[in-house]
């Protein structure tokens, strides 16, 4: 007899309702393993905050926050620099696999007087989380009563899609849609196409709503570190930097090609040897020698941090042409104002706006570039083209009415089934 089992129905609905509340309005990526991967959050400051305060909001390294936004870390006292309200930043986070979907659960927030779930969700975390998600994640029975100093888990949206988009390395930015946004403008801002954004987010139309969270692929430089490396899977978005190996190594991506380039970081920290074994080359050094058969290029590359030590590899290669000088993504001074058209993205502005006390003593980027960078055999990386993309879905904001109806129906059906 095909009698609907009310218990199953109830569970299915419960599951559905949890899913809807936890994931509404954002692109979700199913996952099966426990690996974590790298992702970015698009975060808009709700008030003036120090660099260190933004970092502690997400429990990340302030240096990682700065380098991800190509902000000059050699600027005096940069961690205490006050960033202006409304500034848009890319926040690097680790994306885990929890209950079969990708999300970040490493962030905690300590409640302060006068906080409410919606002020935490909408203001402090700028729409990256909803009050419902906060309530669910923290099993709050009465969300109107928040104790001061309560430690809340803040589940944040992230996707990785295997670190690629159309088979090219990419890192995904979780972007909160604002009323002024159009999908085409978001695509243009991040150098991708409308088709690509629609594919990635499994959208049937270009309609987006205020508060939706889009996964935006950003071309990146992929690392090729061994699985045993603690920084395995490092991805550096085009135009930015990453600091790794306990602040000893900095890796950059772009602007000319998407080959990861790593060299010793200029931060004053004690680091183990960064010389390539069997040579006098240091990490990031490249020698070139024109021969009759082509250009003999030898580079000392960074290969991750394994067992707590920096691994370097000497890699010789014969290339048709000698590579030019290594170019670095331009650095910006810590922002002090939000320009009208940079409200949406920190456009690489000209260095230093002049109100800093002094020029930085030393720059993150050496003033004398080294010959470097490989011209990979696999050719130039062209603009993102459209194509089949990873399986995912944009869970549209379910109208509250629909949701209520489902619940109502289930409530009606249970007695009927009994
Ligand atoms: C993930 O990407 C790697 C290369 O980056 C590729 O070898 C692998 O097949 C991809 N896996 C899936 C499931 O797409
Ligand atoms: C990387 O960024 C630079 C500008 O910063 C841009 O000119 C270049 O086209 C970008 N590359 C890709 C593949 O998006
Ligand atoms: C090798 O790299 C180190 C560290 O970046 C740098 O100080 C040095 O000048 C480089 N040497 C050569 C020969 O390029
Ligand atoms: C390339 O240069 C390296 C070191 O400079 C040298 O050992 C090697 O023999 C050279 N290879 C060729 C093919 O010239
Ligand atoms: C790292 O350490 C483990 C155990 O101490 C050892 O088995 C492994 O071979 C080491 N790996 C490398 C690359 O040195």
From TrEMBL:
GO biological process entries: immune response
InterPro entries to which the protein is assigned, alphabetical: LysM, LysM_dom_sf
A Pfam family recorded for this sequence: LysM
MF terms in GO: peptidoglycan binding
GO cellular component, one term: plasma membrane
Keywords: Signal
Higher taxonomy: Eukaryota, Viridiplantae, Streptophyta, Embryophyta, Tracheophyta
Residue stretches making up the LysM domain: 107-154, 173-216
Signal peptide bounds: 1-24
The protein's name: LysM domain-containing protein
Gene name linked to the record: LOC100777292
């Amino acid at each position: 007899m095909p009698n609907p089992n009310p218990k199953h129905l109830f569970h299915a609905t419960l599951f559905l309702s949890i899913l809807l509340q936890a994931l509404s309005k954002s692109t979700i990526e199913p996952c099966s393993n426990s690996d974590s991967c790298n992702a970015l959050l698009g975060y808009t400051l709700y008030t003036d905050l120090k660099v260190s305060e933004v970092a502690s909001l997400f429990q990340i390294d302030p240096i990682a926050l700065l380098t991800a936004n190509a902000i000059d870390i050699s600027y005096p006292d940069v961690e205490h620099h006050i960033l202006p309200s409304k500034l848009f930043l890319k926040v690097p986070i680790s994306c885990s696999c929890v209950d079969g979907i990708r999300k970040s659960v490493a962030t905690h927030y300590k409640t302060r007087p006068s906080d409410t779930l919606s002020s935490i969700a909408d203001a402090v975390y700028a729409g990256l989380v909803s009050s419902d998600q906060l309530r669910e994640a923290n099993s709050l029975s009465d969300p109107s009563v928040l104790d001061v100093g309560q430690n809340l888990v803040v589940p944040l949206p992230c996707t990785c899609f295997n670190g690629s988009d159309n088979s090219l390395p990419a890192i995904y930015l979780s972007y909160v849609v604002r009323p002024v946004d159009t999908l085409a403008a978001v695509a243009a801002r991040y150098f991708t196409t409308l088709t690509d954004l629609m594919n990635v987010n499994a959208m049937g139309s270009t309609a987006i709503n205020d508060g939706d969270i889009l996964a935006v692929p950003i071309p990146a430089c992929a690392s090729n570190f061994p699985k045993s490396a603690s920084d395995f899977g490092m991805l550096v978005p085009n135009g930015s930097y990453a600091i790794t190996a306990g602040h000893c190594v900095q890796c950059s991506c772009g602007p000319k090609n998407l080959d990861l380039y790593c060299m010793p970081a200029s931060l004053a920290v004690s680091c183990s040897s960064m010389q390539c074994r069997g040579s006098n080359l240091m990490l990031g050094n490249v020698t070139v020698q024109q021969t009759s058969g082509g250009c003999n290029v030898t580079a000392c590359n960074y290969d991750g941090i394994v067992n707590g030590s920096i691994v370097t590899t000497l890699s010789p290669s014969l290339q048709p042409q000698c590579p030019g000088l290594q170019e670095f993504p331009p650095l910006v001074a810590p922002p002090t104002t939000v320009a009208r058209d940079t409200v949406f993205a920190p456009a690489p502005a000209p260095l230093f706006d002049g109100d800093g006390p002094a020029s930085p003593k030393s720059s993150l980027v050496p003033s004398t570039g080294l010959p470097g960078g490989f011209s990979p055999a696999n050719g130039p990386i062209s603009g993102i083209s459209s194509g089949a993309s990873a399986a995912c879905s944009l869970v549209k904001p379910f109208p509250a009415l629909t949701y209520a109806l489902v619940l109502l129906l289930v409530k009606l059906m249970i007695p009927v089934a009994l």
